[in-house]
Here is the input.
Amino acid sequence: MYDSYLSVPSGFLSDLDRMRGDLDSLFGWGGTSRAIRSTGGSTYPAINVGQSPEAVDVYVFAPGIDASRTEVTLDRGVLTISGERASDLPAEAPKTSVHGRERYAGKFRRAVALPDDVDPNQVSATYRDGVLRVNVRRREAAQPKRIAIE
Here is the structure.
C-alpha cells in the first residue's frame, strides 16, 4: 500500500516511537492511531489510511453495507463515513436464539483526520467487493514565483 503518515518517523524519534508502542501494549490500545475516531465505542468498520505524494487513500472494510445508504463527508480536514449494516437475522423469526455473534450489525460512524494539504474539491469514493475506497487528492504545491524588480 502506501507509507503511513500516521506513524512517528524513525531515526531521531525512534525512542519516542518505541515508547508509544509500549504504552499502546500496556493499556491495550492496540496501536490505533489517534487520527481515526469512532462513535459509540465501535471500531466497525476497520479502516486503513495511506498516502502517496499525489493523494491520501482511506480504505474502509465494510462488507454487507448498502453503498447508496452510506454517507461520506469531508469537512475541515475530517473525513467522516457513516451508515448502517443490516442484521443478518430474519425478522420473521422471533423465537430464534442467538448463542454467539461476531458479525456487526447496526449504525456506524467513523472519522479520519486528514493532512492539511488535501484538496476538498478532489475527492472520489468507490465501493467494490466490500471495500469502500476514498481517494483525496493533494493540492498542487505552490511553485516559487520570480518577481521582477522595476
DSSP finds one helix and eight strands in the chain.
